[in-house]
Amino acid sequence: MSTDLLTTRETRGGDSGTSAGAGERLRVAVIIGSTREGRVGAAVARWFATHAQQYDAFELDMVDLLEVPLPVRLTEEVTPELDAWSARIDRADAFVIVTPEYNHGYPAALKHAIDLLYREWHAKPVGFVSYGGVGRGLRAVEQLRQVFAELHAVTLRDSVSVNVSDGEVDDLGWVREHTGASTAAKRLLERLEWWADALHSARTASAYTA
Ligand SMILES: Cc1cc2nc3c(=O)[nH]c(=O)nc-3n(C[C@H](O)[C@H](O)[C@H](O)COP(=O)(O)O)c2cc1C
Questions:
Q1: Ranges for the NADPH-dependent FMN reductase-like domain (predicted)?
Q2: Is it the case that residue 11 has pLDDT exceeding 60?
Q3: What is the pLDDT of residue 4?
Q4: Spatial separation of the C-alpha atoms in residues 25 and 46, rounded to whole Å
Q5: Is ligand 1 within 6 A of the CB of residue 37?
Q6: Is the Cα dihedral 117, 122, 127, 131 positive or negative?
Q7: 143: closest CA among 188, 109, 106?
Q8: 61 CA to middle of ligand 1, Å?
Q9: Which fold has domain 3-17+25-205?
Q10: Would the pLDDT of 45 be above 50?
Q11: 3-state class (DSSP) for residue 14
């Protein structure tokens, strides 16, 4: 790893303690990882949000990477775009990554958005909603677990995974009920609430340093 990147990591925003305060709802950023033309991802994310909205504990921020202006290269230059991205991720108490699988991996746009920040991800839980062909996006999820471990984030065991090439979503990208995905989403959200609450308390009690 370059010294430049280390410097960026140490200095860019985020003290991992500025998210929801006592009595406030836990802030969950749902990140849509696909920016592909004709993507299914936005619809899958909306489907998941309908489940998450049923939890009073959560305040949702739908993060569509297609609409977030980001620097095209990793940079130490402080730009308004990078500051805004830093503040948005720093504000969150938890993340749900909605990711497809491309060539047994996850989208490059998602990796770039992750790599631009460092402390903002620390000591926060990350859940996954994945989709793809027969692999249901699970290979992308397993790779993302390694990425988020490096970022001192905690990935949840339970995830939602959908086969979009086998009739599990309808023509509008909505996940069909018979797939069991709604039950999986509920379990994921329960786990996310537990971890988001626990880690928020921990970050409040003692700043996480890495
Ligand atoms: C470039 C590319 C590579 C893909 N590779 C895989 C793959 O390795 N495994 C898989 O299960 N599906 C694969 N797929 C299918 C996608 O997961 C599926 O089309 C999904 O809908 C893509 O998400 P999006 O529509 O939100 O972009 C691939 C699709 C594309 C466009």
A1: 27-163
A2: no
A3: 31
A4: 20
A5: no
A6: positive
A7: 106
A8: 25
A9: Rossmann fold (3.40.50)
A10: yes
A11: coil
Q: Whose CA is nearest to atom 23 of ligand 1?
A: 100
Which residues fall within 8 angstroms of residue 62, CB to CB, at 6 or more apart? 30, 32, 45, 49
**Cβ proximity of 85 and 13 under 8 Å:** no
Q: Which two tokens stand for residue 198?
A: 């626990």
pLDDT in tens, 88-140: 999 999 999 999 999 999 999 999 999 999 999 999 999 999 999 999 999 99
Ligand 1 lined by 102 (C-beta under 6 Å): yes
Q: How far apart are CA 167 and CA 176, in angstroms?
A: 8
Helix ranges, 65-180 (H):
80-91, 108-115, 138-150
What DSSP string describes 165-207? TTTSB-TTSPBPGGGSHHHHHHHHHHHHHHHHHHHHHHHHHS-
* Nearest-angstrom CA–CA distance, 208 and 189: 24
Q: Is the CB of 112 under 6 A from ligand 1?
A: no
Q: In terms of Cα–Cα distance, which of 118, 160, 153, 109 is closest to 137?
A: 160
